[in-house]
Amino acid sequence: MKKSLQITLKDNSKINIDATIKTTQETSIKVHELFEEGISSLLLTIEHEELNTLLDLTKSRPFTLLYFYEGNFFAAAAFSNNETAGPFFINTQYKIILFIPSSFKFLPGDIFKYTPMTIVEKKTVEKIFQHKAFIYGYGKFPYIILKAGHAIYMQIPIHFNTNGDLDNYPGTNLDDISDEILADYEKDKTSALHDRLINHCKWLKTKIESENNREARICLVEGPEIAYYFEGDKITFNNSIPNGGTLVTQQNSILAMNVEHYIN
């Protein structure tokens, strides 16, 4: 069963997380076995009477773990970065745990202790203030997202220059992209053009860091469930793409708020 979970942050903004809800009576849990295909976030309720539960996070992808007291009040957090091939375990006394992919860009420190997590109906979620005003060149795959601040995302469109048509087009561009290369990419997002996109993002990340004298966190988004996160020297694939928050142009004009970053 999947529900939309809502948590209010310290700045009074809200995050919504679509999570699958499961219960267990196990005292030792192999977390990766709980994640069938299609599950990105999981709210787990532990129902045994023992004091401690052992979470085996070996083989699991990177997670942020949010712990809740009875009544779904935020208590604490932990991280499972899974950076080594060896076994990784967490022993916990908490009985309500929300597993969120580490690619979900927020910090547990943004939540006050004892903040309630609520389960909201879809019709309620839709009443949250939303705004969408995509302008020319924005909202089309593939594109790049630059994390510009807390819940602020800058979209950098990618233009494939096939006919010398770069004038008045925002974002960044790749030259000498033939119709044949584009056709192959449409059929297969791992084709040769994908490799060029990855290399272009590496170049762009270095350029942004040089201009701003600080590390840049960017993401190449190639589809509704195709994202490559660039952090430090690492590139990590995830089927959870950046969404929500405030989406802005490179001139800091607002494109969208609290919606997907692409045109449906």
Explain what the structure shows:
The strands form three sheets. Strands 11, 12, 13, 14, 15, 16, 17, 18 and 19 form a nine-stranded mixed sheet that branches. Strands 7-6-9-4-2-1-10 form a seven-stranded mixed sheet. A three-stranded mixed sheet has the order 3-5-8, with no helix packed on it. With 264 residues, it is mainly beta. The model is unreliable at 123-128 (pLDDT under 50). The chain is elongated. It is built from three helices and 19 strands. A hairpin with a 2-residue loop joins β12 (143-149) and β13. It folds into two domains: 2-125, Jelly Rolls, CATH 2.60.120; 131-257, no CATH class.
Determine the number of helices (DSSP H or I, runs of at least 4 residues). Answer: 3
The main β sheet shows up as:
9 strands, mixed
**Poorly predicted segments:** 123-128
- Euclidean distance between termini CA atoms: 25 Å
- SSE ordering: EEEEEEEEEEHEEEEHHEEEEE
Strand content: 35-45%
Give the topology.
Layout: E1 2-8, E2 14-24, E3 28-30, E4 42-46, E5 53-56, E6 63-69, E7 73-80, E8 89-92, E9 96-101, E10 117-120, H1 122-125, E11 131-132, E12 143-149, E13 152-160, E14 172-174, H2 179-187, H3 192-212, E15 218-223, E16 226-231, E17 234-238, E18 246-248, E19 254-257
Parallel strand pairs: 2-4, 3-5, 13-14, 13-18
Antiparallel strand pairs: 1-2, 1-10, 4-9, 5-8, 6-7, 6-9, 11-19, 12-13, 12-15, 15-16, 16-17, 18-19
Provide the descriptors you would attach to this structure in a database record:
7-stranded mixed sheet, 2 domains, mainly beta, 13% helix, 3 helices, 264 residues, Jelly Rolls, 9-stranded mixed sheet
